[in-house]
Amino acid sequence: MKVLLIGDGARENALAYALEKSPNNYRIYAMSSYINPGINSIVKRSNGEYFVGDINSSDTIENIIRKVNPDLGVIGPEEPLFHGVADVFRKEGIPVFGASRKCAKIEESKAWARELMWKYSIPGRLRYRTFYTIEEAAKFILEYGGSVAIKPAGQAGGKGVKVVADLEAYLTQDKREALMKSVKDIGNLYNKEGEPKIIIEEKVDGPEYTLHVLSDGKTTIPLPLAQDYKNAYQDGIGPETGGMGSISGPHNLLPFINEEEYNITYDIVKATIEAIYKEVRESYVGVIAGQMMLTELWGPTVIEYYSRFGDPEASAIIPRINSDFGEIIELTATGHLNKGKIEVNERASVVKAVAPLGYPISRQMASGHRISIDLDKMRENGCIVFFGSISMEGMQLITKGSRALEIVAIGELEEASEKVDKCINYVSADTKLVYRSDIGKNINYQIEKAEIVRYSYMNRQRKGILGVSADWSPNGGLW
């Protein structure tokens, strides 16, 4: 069977890894905007072919589909989904692992996702307001005296969230000017004609986690939980990135999320899949993820949705799946997921992303550097390597400005974290490389935080006020 994989990065390398491991002997073809060394090696071993071009262009993808005549399509990133690339496969009569353009709106528009949650009374929803201009959003924030989260109203690569707390209690002129700059920066991250620019949500707090759910339009299967580490630097400080690492496990959970919370989260994502179908009249086929937070307000609470695998969460989850995940991908795309079964390694995984100095602030500074990797030594030390923003140019590996590698190890969390640290020693470059050594460590803090939140939301549950809090607006009326 010929499989055409769309995408550039470590997530797509992880998907190719799953397809190659399958006993079904998939012949893997790939389409990327540059040659990813990890994907390229798998393509060569399977006697496929590599294509380079615009992964968001329906016309380009259509031409490659007609050249390859694949039996199955697999789409990794969100942008091709937003541009309707999955629809191109389906128009050609080819099953594809990837949400349609209409279904992918659950990620593309945070405003649409919130509206959907309220329309269909999906638990874990936050109050929100949307704004079409920066000025309207700024006026609301300055007049309101509470805590809010300010976000671009649409997908912006996981970046751009600003949390503002108790403004009127301390806002000086200097802080007011800094806030206005932040709002303007966020407003410029998403600018789709006819849609809101900024969404402002009530602020909540608690440990974050992600649940990915496979859907073939009829059957759903939940995958193990993962947690993403968004901030660039140690201990969760610094600018937000696409993700500097991830953990998953043990079993289907995380050390700070229990079985009941897992099941509630699964119910929320299933309810979302049903709501999407009611709204757009198209079945959701592919993977959908709830990016969640355990909060006092609801317990499991939706922060946002993904219409694809998270990155680097995919690198944490896929290597832990003992069953034939390549076949599971095929069953999802072809509508036979009821025949699939997920068996998970009981041990945990830790992923750490390695990036060139400059990421995420300056893509230019992080681009164009030669990087060397001793893959044999890394494998000897129990690590799996997925290539990200690295291009194979001749015989050299050249950084493209984002996260270059995602290094994975499986074991007890602390043990796996230390394995990855050891393997990072086998990576060198002509610039400084940055990564977070704290990923997978100091989990007790998150366990304690979850226990405090759990006590609060369960107390609300007993009183029948789960999800209930004071409505607010600048004038003291309804939100």
Automatic annotation (TrEMBL):
<dbReference type="InterPro" id="IPR016185">
    <property type="entry name" value="PreATP-grasp_dom_sf"/>
</dbReference>
<dbReference type="InterPro" id="IPR011054">
    <property type="entry name" value="Rudment_hybrid_motif"/>
</dbReference>
<dbReference type="Pfam" id="PF02843">
    <property type="entry name" value="GARS_C"/>
</dbReference>
<feature type="domain" description="ATP-grasp">
    <location>
        <begin position="114"/>
        <end position="334"/>
    </location>
</feature>
<keyword id="KW-0067">ATP-binding</keyword>
<dbReference type="InterPro" id="IPR011761">
    <property type="entry name" value="ATP-grasp"/>
</dbReference>
<keyword id="KW-0436">Ligase</keyword>
<dbReference type="InterPro" id="IPR037123">
    <property type="entry name" value="PRibGlycinamide_synth_C_sf"/>
</dbReference>
<dbReference type="InterPro" id="IPR013815">
    <property type="entry name" value="ATP_grasp_subdomain_1"/>
</dbReference>
<dbReference type="GO" id="GO:0046872">
    <property type="term" value="F:metal ion binding"/>
</dbReference>
<dbReference type="GO" id="GO:0005524">
    <property type="term" value="F:ATP binding"/>
</dbReference>
<dbReference type="InterPro" id="IPR000115">
    <property type="entry name" value="PRibGlycinamide_synth"/>
</dbReference>
<comment type="pathway">
    <text>Purine metabolism; IMP biosynthesis via de novo pathway; N(1)-(5-phospho-D-ribosyl)glycinamide from 5-phospho-alpha-D-ribose 1-diphosphate: step 2/2.</text>
</comment>
<protein>
    <recommendedName>
        <fullName>Phosphoribosylamine--glycine ligase</fullName>
        <ecNumber>6.3.4.13</ecNumber>
    </recommendedName>
</protein>
<dbReference type="Pfam" id="PF02844">
    <property type="entry name" value="GARS_N"/>
</dbReference>
<dbReference type="GO" id="GO:0006189">
    <property type="term" value="P:'de novo' IMP biosynthetic process"/>
</dbReference>
<keyword id="KW-0658">Purine biosynthesis</keyword>
<dbReference type="GO" id="GO:0009113">
    <property type="term" value="P:purine nucleobase biosynthetic process"/>
</dbReference>
<dbReference type="Pfam" id="PF01071">
    <property type="entry name" value="GARS_A"/>
</dbReference>
<dbReference type="GO" id="GO:0004637">
    <property type="term" value="F:phosphoribosylamine-glycine ligase activity"/>
</dbReference>
<dbReference type="InterPro" id="IPR020561">
    <property type="entry name" value="PRibGlycinamid_synth_ATP-grasp"/>
</dbReference>
<dbReference type="InterPro" id="IPR020560">
    <property type="entry name" value="PRibGlycinamide_synth_C-dom"/>
</dbReference>
<comment type="similarity">
    <text>Belongs to the GARS family.</text>
</comment>
<keyword id="KW-0547">Nucleotide-binding</keyword>
<dbReference type="InterPro" id="IPR020562">
    <property type="entry name" value="PRibGlycinamide_synth_N"/>
</dbReference>
